[in-house]
Amino acid sequence: MPDSARKPATDKRRHGRLSRTFAVEINILSFPANPGRAVEARCYDISEGGLSVESPRIFDVGDKLQVRINIPLLNKFSPGFFKVYENDAEQYFLAIAEVMWSKARGGSNLIGMRYINVDEDQARALAGLIRKAFRSGSG
Q1: What percentage of the chain carries pLDDT values higher than 70?
Q2: Domains, the chain, ranges and CATH?
């Protein structure tokens, strides 16, 4: 198993983490809707169950966020209809996520999230992409 996929004995995660830098757009979900600008962040690592990002903005534990992650070649792993678009330059993974932890890190913030709502086909595509990365040893 690649080093980045190893889990310490005290780690409660069910999914291995893939260390990749992807561009992420974050919008906080609130009522009434606040159509503010999206926060631009950078993916620190990603798994089938969540992700962590480096963000210029701090978020509170429990915040519900819409995340849009630019993952090149994601559609290559999509079942069915979306496979037609596997050559699209911009391919996004969309999810509703909940902030599980947050900490200051240098001049930015590291935020850990778990997905709470994801399209089933996109979830399968992400799982396929992550499995392939671990099999090829590039995780």
Answers
A1: 78
A2: 3-7+15-135 (2.40.10.220)
